Amino acid sequence: MSNDYGNDFVTITDDDGNEYELEHLDTADIDGELYMAFVPADLDEDDEDFGLIVLKVSIQDEEEIFVTIEDDNELDYVYEFFLQRFSEDDDGDYQYLDEDDD
């Protein structure tokens, strides 16, 4: 994801009507499915458990919606995929790694 125009924020609503603001970090097509990685918008950067959130993009009634990944194996696979695309530099800051930057 390019940060040329700043970060993207989305507000999602869960099944109970609770709203959450998330910062979009990355999008990936993995095995023909579209996934998006987020962190909470109110993230405390000093929090070691930064809570990466991975959601699947699904089409329902010709509209894109975010759905949780119910299958544990699929979630683990996609979560690890996104984690590998980010690395921690010497200053403790996370940076995006392109697939070509192995």
Itemize the secondary structure elements and their pairings.
Blueprint: E1 8-13, E2 19-30, E3 33-40, E4 53-60, E5 63-67, H1 72-84, E6 86-88, E7 94-96
Antiparallel strand pairs: 1-2, 2-3, 3-4, 4-5, 6-7
Strand percent estimate: 35-45%
- As residue ranges, the low-confidence spans are none
For the largest beta-sheet, the strand count, sense and barrel status come to: 5 strands, antiparallel
Distance between the termini: 17 Å
Provide the structure class.
Answer: mainly beta
Number of domains: 1
> How helix-rich are the residues, as a percent range?
10-25%
Taking all residues together, what is the mean pLDDT? Answer: 80
Order of helices and strands: EEEEEHEE
* Count of alpha/pi helices: 1
How big is the Rg?
14 Å
Commentary on this structure:
With 102 residues, the chain is mostly beta strands. The protein has one domain (8-96). The chain has one helix spanning 72-84; strands spanning 8-13, 19-30, 33-40, 53-60, 63-67, 86-88, 94-96. The strands form two sheets. A five-stranded antiparallel beta sheet has the order 1-2-3-4-5. It has a two-stranded antiparallel sheet with strand order 6-7. It is globular and about 40 Å long. It starts with 7 loop residues before the first strand and ends in a 6-residue tail after the last strand.
